[in-house]
Amino acid sequence: VLPAPDFDLAATLGSGQVFHWTDHGGVWWGALGDKPMWIRQDGCAVICPAGAEEKVRHFLALDHDMAAIGKSLSRKGPALRRAVAFAPGLRILRQPKWECLAGFITSPLKQIAHIRAISLTLREKYGERVGEGPDGRGIFSYPEAAALARAGESALRSCKLGYRAKGLAATAALVADGRADLEGWAALTTPDLRLRLLGLPGVGPKIADCVLLFAYGRLEAFPVDVWVSRAVRDGYFDGEEMSERAIIAFAAKRFGAYAGYAQQYLFHHARLHGSPHP
DNA sequence: GGCCAGGTGTACC
DNA sequence: GGTACACATGGC
């Protein structure tokens, strides 16, 4: 049992940061790295298997000071204030790096439901069966980079990845042979780390910022996708057209060190609360 | 059936 | 620096 004030498990695991956790009657099942895991919330407490508390606490970022973050961001305009109020317990997770990077490489121009389906398929085909869920189906770890590199582009294409298979296979090869040292890169400054990520096949500014935010804990990163772009333009610029660069620059200036949290609140609210655009 | 989805790479200027 | 276009697949 972990104390978890200002925390919302369903919003956190269901807000498009991770792509394989599954809700079975209030208990969320998945793999945390190579360990099978279940997590549930009971009021201001989080419950998980005995012995896994520290790992789960780290993954869920229960140490983030949500009172301070929420208070700071709620002062930055009515659009963000509404978004924070919609799901104040939403957290930015600390995900395993390769799994996060690979997951987002499969994401461009896809809906979250389909990204989920791809993640589950890759796990079953190329990951390890590490446990069993409540429905009797296996729980699988995310495939090692070497396993996806070995599979190759054409095999990955058959997992409904489409053109994204090329980038995933190429980046997997770089990670597998150490030319891309995801763990070692954690020591880099955020601008340097971002440049490294941008050098990987299939990774542009949006995915680089997702990985900075969801795997490296760089809370100032501000991934701009179609939802966030609309939310910023509608909420702060009367809907006017803006380049992605301009939106990122605005977010850095306006939202500062917690821009990543602002982003996730805006994204979650826009996606689930209905967009003003038809 | 057309439009949209957590965009990126390439070819231009 | 910006802009235009191709790119796989599935839900609605």
Write up what this structure looks like.
The protein has 278 residues and is an alpha+beta fold. Helices cover 51% and strands 10% of the residues. It has 13 helices and seven strands. The strands form two sheets. Strands 1-5-4-3-2 form a five-stranded antiparallel beta sheet. Strands 6-7 form a two-stranded antiparallel sheet. A hairpin with a 2-residue loop joins strand 3 and strand 4. Helix 9 packs across helix 10. It starts with a strand and ends in a 5-residue tail after the last helix. The mean pLDDT is 96. It binds a DNA duplex (13 and 12 nucleotides) through helix 6, helix 7, helix 8, helix 10 and helix 11.
Task: Describe this structure in a few short sentences.
The protein is of the alpha+beta class and 278 residues long. It has 13 helices and 7 strands.
Sum up the structure in keywords.
alpha+beta, five-stranded antiparallel beta sheet, two-stranded antiparallel ribbon, 51% helix, globular, DNA-binding
Report the average pLDDT across residues.
Answer: 96
Q: What is the overall number of helices? A: 13
Number of beta strands? 7
Pattern of helices and strands: EHEEEEHHHHHEEHHHHHHH
Write down the overall geometry.
globular
Q: Taking strands numbered 1, 2, ... along the chain, how are they ordered across the largest sheet? A: 1-5-4-3-2
Distance separating the two termini = 43 Å
Q: What is the share of helical residues?
A: 40-55%
Strand fraction: 5-15%
The secondary structure category is: alpha+beta
Largest sheet: 5 strands, antiparallel
Low-confidence stretches: none
Rg estimate, integer Å = 18 Å
